[in-house]
Structures are given as structure tokens and as C-alpha cells.
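Q: What does the assembly look like in three dimensions?
Context provided by user:
Components: two
Sequences:
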Amino acid sequence: MNTTDILQPFIDSCNQSGLKLSGLDSILLAPAHCVCVFHSDWSATIKLARDAEFRFCAFWCQEKMNELEALVCLEKNGQYLVLRTDVTPEITLASISPIYPVANRLERHASDLLGLQFHDQTDSRRWVRHQAWSQGEYPLRTSFPLNPERNSTPADDSYPFLMVQGAGVIEIPVGPVHAGIIEPGHFRFQAVGETILNLEERLGYVHKGIEKLAMGRDVYKLVRLASRISGDSTVAHCWAACQAFERAGKIDVPARALHIRAIMAERERIANHMGDIGAICNDVGFAFAQYQFTRLKEDWVRLNQTLFGHRFMMDKIIAGGVVVDLDDHGIELLRQQIAKMEPEVKTIVERLEGSESLEDRLMTTGRLTPEQASQYSTIGYTGKASGQCFDVRSAAPYPPYDQLSVTIPGYRAGDVAARAKVRADEIDISLKLILRLLDSLPTGSICADWSGVIKNAEGIGFIEGWRGEILTYIRMNEQGKVQRFFPRDPSWLMWPALELLIHGNIVPDFPVCNKSVNGSYSGQDL
Amino acid sequence: MLSMFIKIFRTGIVTEQVIDKTVDEYESLGIEVKRGIDKNFAGSLAIRQVDAGSCNACELEIHALNNPYYDIERFGIHFVASPRHADVLLVTGPVSRNMETALKRTYEAMPEPKWVIAAGDCACNGGEFGVSYASCGALENVLPVDVLIPGCPPTPTQLLIGLLAALR
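A: Here is the predicted structure of the complete assembly.
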């Protein structure tokens, strides 16, 4: 299906409804199509897009002269559409959270950091702002210093959580410090007996000011920062930032570098999926899977160290290419490891699928229906387990995936078992994909020869990380320094799914449900 | 069930069989750590880990300490859920301002004597994030620190070296 098939009916329907779209541009943010909307038409336009079955990807905001500019990215059949509108200080923008519910936290993030004001929001409480800065202060504005004088920060004990009252209703606060080696966040449960009536997530604890730190950096320093957005997705985030920058600067990345990037990204996917399947099983007391998969994962990351010089391949992607090449010996080691890993994974997964106790604990647990997943724009393995089989590598393939066909697993059960199954399938698919990438590894340079400075340009990157689609927006200023950097981790679209799928489950099943979704805290808190 | 036992049996004990150089190093370090723990902590060292703002890469490596290759529990080290049970507070990440009070409260909840270890470049010196409106930077800006374990992230072996330093 070509571009006009997707965009033209939407533009026609906007025109029929008297909504003015201007400045349609397919080059500025390519491969996304970009169009400007008048602020008073904002929600009406986006409602038409929803009616035309566009999927919500991201919402973000940036300073533009003395105004703010709001941007939303939508997708349909692999075509991305960015709608943007200018918002002057005296007006409030119509919220799109009644149209796309998952946009809500992204809007609140923009309110807290840039002071964008909304009306008709489904939820207008603060989000990333705890007690580190006051209401009315907007850290991401250029007028706000990076490092203002600050005393110690008190606990955020005044957040207005949803309250539930009734006979036998108990409230369970959990976190931010959890009973394990995991990231911090707060969960507020209301339960009757063991059954969960409601779960409310409160994140933002690991907010480190990544968007602010990016401002004024050159691209080399930006890429180092992007590698540390979410440590388990270091390759994917780094690639997304580089891709956005390379598109902004029209830099042609050598084919060999792109292949090596994809090999690293698939290796990252496999490592995390192995860890997750083990941990999901361990959360229901099935230690066999945990020990087998942590053993295989250790083998896996050790080869990363040997070949790429880092167990998680951090800082190996740079703007224009990669910093590590693969020699014949390295390629042989990769092949040998896959030959050894493939039957091992297969055997273990067969054992897990044959286990009645696992079946009993994982099937029907934490069910996200395909309808809920669609309404909440769920992506990644959480989406794929609930009938939403979007994957950037197949729907909007970027090189080198444009030369490969990637199989995407899909289920509709939407339970913990299905999310584990998607991961197992993806391990198998990615192992085979790496072999194909090695077979077709082009010769030549591993880094583009480019000037080193890109001025006054913007670009957008879309990478399928192991969790799902990552979107990264970059804008460079007149001096060739970063003016705006916004990485949208897939976790923004997965955390709300956890609140839905936990309904009616028992409190002791929360850890396994949470692990099966495994949203990143750091990737979302920024 | 039988097939699972066969798999376990065939996998064997990887902890002892590995002859990788890094693991040899790890083994000898581990024995030294164990001696220190036997002497100072009656054979058992309890660690409460807190992510105070990390990107999660440090957590992945701390997790790896529990995999069958490293199996850190054999040296008497275990991770505990409650700070009340902990001898050591192992902190990763720059301390985000939003985690500052939670981290201090965790420290206060620990019984004396208590040690604090900063794991990873961010906890050691602020790393890529430093001090800002959102981050207090290095752990020492918030709590007294006994041992620093550098690395981005520190490998499991580096983590064990750091624990050894804490015991000396």
C-alpha cells in the first residue's frame, strides 16, 4: 500500500470537516510525513486520525521562539504521520487523552517539564514532577538553569492517589524501594482479600533530566547519553538516536555498519528475552528455567565482551556507523554460538511448555484482551501477545531489515504465557536472523565520512528495540548542538497495559504479571 | 518431569566446570571474600541493593552475580529484601532527587554497623548524568560511602573485587 492510499483519505476527511492542514511535507521528518495543524483543530484532527485507525506512537513538546510546539506521531500500515501545532502561552491545548488514553502520561510529562497547559485531560495530576521542583517551574525551558541551587528533596507524600472505600477494601503501597534488585517505582493496590480491585502506578523516581542534559551537547556526547537511557536497551536507544541524527543530516551509513548494528540489536533482543523468560518462570517458583536461561544469557553476553568489547555492547554505535568491525574469526564464533544455542533454547522451551504447573500459573493470568491492547496502543511483545502485531522491522523496515523479511509472532490470548511465548518465538527468529545477516554481511567501511556538524535540522528515528518500537526525535540548532532530544521508550505504551491486565488477579501474581510486561522505569522516567 | 531432570543432569554444575580465565579469577577472589565474611560477619553478608537512579545496566550485572557461573551465594553473600536485615547497602545510579529521601530512609533503617558501597560510575562520580535539577550526582553527595566500584556497568568480577575491598 503506498503513501497516498493512507494519507489521502485522512487529508480528504480533514478538508471535508473544515480542518485546515498546512505544510504537508514528506521530506523534513522522512520517513514520517509531517503536517501542521491549527491549535484549535488539534483534537478534532487527531480524532479523525483515530477514526481512520491510525495507531498512537508518541506525544512530545518543544520550545519554539516564545511559544511551545506540540507534536504527535501516529502510524498506519507502516506509514508514520507527525502532526504539529504551535501553542502560544495564553492558550491551553485540547488534550488528546480522551482519544488515545496512553497519550495522557506523555502530556503530563510535557506539562511538568515545559509548562504546556491542557484542557479536557482525562487525568491532569502531575507526573514526573515529585518534589524536586515546584509547580510553575519548568526545567526543560531554556530559561531554567541545568543546575539550580537546591536543598535536599523531601519525599513525595502528597500525591493524590485514587482512593477506594468499602467494607474489606485494603490498600497496599509498594515501593519505590522494592524487595529485589529492580528499578524503583511506586505501586498502589486496592484489594479485597487477595483480589486486586485497582492498581495505580506512580513512576518518575529515576528521572535524571536526560532531555535537559541533552540540550547543547554535540552528537558524540548525545549518543553516549542515549546509550544510558535504559541499560537493557542500550543498543536500540543508541541506534534510534543515531538514526534520527543521520536522517537529519542526510548521512549515508555504510551497509556493513548497518548489518553490524542489526546483529547487535538482535543479540540484545535475545539476551533480554532469555533473562525475562527465566525470571517469569522464577516468579512462580519454577527455578529450572531461571538457572538454565541465566546460564545461557551469561554465555551470550561473554561473547559480546569478546567480540564487541562490552557485555551489553554499550557505546558501540556512533553517528555514521559503528566502532567495532567483525573479522572472519568473530563471524565464525557468532555462528558457532548460535549453532550451540539454538538446540539448547529449543529443549528448555519444550520442557517449559510441557510443564503443567507452569501452565496452571501462567495461562489466563494477567490477561490483556486484544480490544484493550488496541485501545491502549500497546506495542512490543505485550502487544504481539494481544493481537497487536506491529513491528517496525516488518511494517516500516529500516536498513538492513528492508532486505530481510522478519517473521513476527502473534497471539490473542494476552496472558502471561502468551507474552512468554512471544519472547521464545522471537529468540528463535532472531537467532536465524543473525545467521542471515552474517551470510549477507557486506564488505566495506564501518563508518560514514561526514563533516561532524549538522546545523539547523530535525530528524526522527524508529527502531524496534527488544521491548518494542522506540521513537527518537532530534533537533539540532544553528551551532550544530542539540536543541531537543526526545526518546520515546516503548515502556510509555506498556505501563498503562499493566494497570489494565492486573484487574481481578491476585496480589501474589503481581510480580509475574509485572515481569511479563517488564516496562523500563529509567526509559520512561528520563 | 523426568525430561527436566535429564536436562538438569546433563547441564551439570557449570559453576565448577568452567575454566574461563575470568572465572578462575572470580573463584580465587570469591575464596578471599569468603574468608573475610567468615571472619567479620560469622559467615554471612547480607546486601540490600537500591537503584537510586541507574539506567538498569548495573542491576543486570548484579543479577548476573546470582547466575550459575558466579553463584555468589556460595561465598556467603546474599541479597535481602529488608534493609533491617542488611550489613551492606549497595547503591547504583546517580542519586536522582526523586529517590533522595527513599534512599536515606533505607540507609536509616539498616542496623549498625553498616557499610555503603557505590556500584558503577554514576554512583561513584555522577557518571554521564552528574549534578542537575533532577540528580544529586555521586552517592557521596547523599550518604557516607565506604567503597567505590567503578565501571559502566561494573562486571560481576569487578563487583566481587569491590566487595573484597569492603571486607579488608
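Follow-up: Residues 210-525 of chain A form a domain with the Cytochrome-c3 Hydrogenase; chain B fold (CATH 1.10.645.10).
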